[in-house]
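To whoever is on call:

I kicked off a structure prediction for a single chain this morning and the downstream step that reads the tokens threw a length-mismatch warning. I double-checked the sequence; it's 495 residues and nothing unusual in it as far as I can see. Pasting both halves so you can look.
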Amino acid sequence: MASSERNAGFHECQLVTFHLGDDEFGADIVHVKEIVRVPEITRVPNALSYVEGACNLRGHVLPIIDGRARFHMEKKERNENSRVLVVEVNGKATGIIVDRVSEVVRVSASDIEAPPQIAQHAEADYVNGIVKLDNGNRLIMLLDIVKAVNGDGGAREQTAEQDASGGRFWEPSVEPASDAAADEQLVSFLLGKEEYAIGIMQVKEIIRVPERMKVPNCEAYVDGVVSIRNRLLPILNLRTYFGMEPEAITDQTRVLVVDMGGFSAGMIVDKVSEVLRVPSGLIQPPPKFLAQSGEQLKGVAKLDGGKRLIMLLDPSKIMSADAYRLIGGLEEAPQEAGEAESFERQNMDEEQLVAFKIDNEEYGIKIREVQEINRMTEVTKVPRAPSFIDGIVNLRGNIIPVLNVRKLFGLSDKAVTDTTRIIIVDSAGEKTGIIVDSVSEVLRFEKALIEPPPELLKSGIDSSYVEGVGKLDEGKRMVMILRLDKVLGCAQIFA
């Protein structure tokens, strides 16, 4: 097709020009909203091959494409010249990493020729033409940036709602006020340096990594199976599932026992971070390029003004019921009514606790009394408060008193460390923060293993604070279950 036919009605335009390797490309400046240095990028497992991950751009999640990978070029280390072009296509922003940005040039229709059948390093469908400058000594491939970003040969229509709102990706966002009913309560965890989360209602318990029995002819990510309370539980290694390098099991490694939708499975994670409440307004759907069709990513939570990104997983998309059947874990026949009743009775005969440590002693609080678990934050001192009240904290606009359990129990004070946590508990509708040295795990065990507290407790704390003592591992592990109403009675006047 002749250039005059291709560019009918077109006179001139401005191009942002950039390099990928030895080739120079140009994109219509209308689509390029800004150019920034390569920021810290959060990797996204199982994404499209050319998707580098996501970053925070002024409180918004920006998917990042590797320009070299997009056009099937050899990978190259980034340097001080590397840049990200923030491109908008139909109201959606995406970042494209390029080797360097050249300049903004103005070209006319007479400078553009039809592209050859095969454009070097790029699929011809993404090239609208070849710009010839300096008497043909400088050639710029004119990219159809819409196709390059969408990858589907066409642009999606902007919705009427977007047109009416005029909203744009780069506008600063205002964090919505927290509505407890609309909050998402999440269990967050780490895989490498990336942070993920699963809805707390899907997490049944958190346990240390048990001995697993290997299952032949299974998917590589199935680490084995264990029997818990006479039920077969497959153990999935999320690192293997997401194609990450394997890591040795450590003291921080945990298994999240998760409702996968019709059955349960354990998921091995590097470390459980915390239980947190996130206003639903801070969770956005995953950008198009962060997951392939049917991917397990259901959203991205933006915390700390967007500096902290947490990827929300949908467990039901990780392992199918058919895959579960292959390892013999799922009964084909529906559960009989008697079996269901037996299971309900089993739940009634069990206790589920959040276990934590103070010095070398382990304590537990019933999980129904725990609202969330947070990292240590700044505490404002309260004048003339009792010594065991460290002060108050602001939790999404709510003022909450903070009780120091070490001081309440007459133990020596301890400096705050990376493991120090504040457990937000609710007693009779009043929220209180409890500072603990570290949170161990979520435990589920039979109530028959709980005994009344002895007259003299090893730690020397007031026995009225202790409801019972759970004996685990044949009595080798003792967990003192606290009576929250007694412990918090001293703090309620500050609520």
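Update from on-call: the warning came from a stale cache, not from the record. Cleared it. Sanity check on the structure: The first strand starts at residue 12 and ends at 20.
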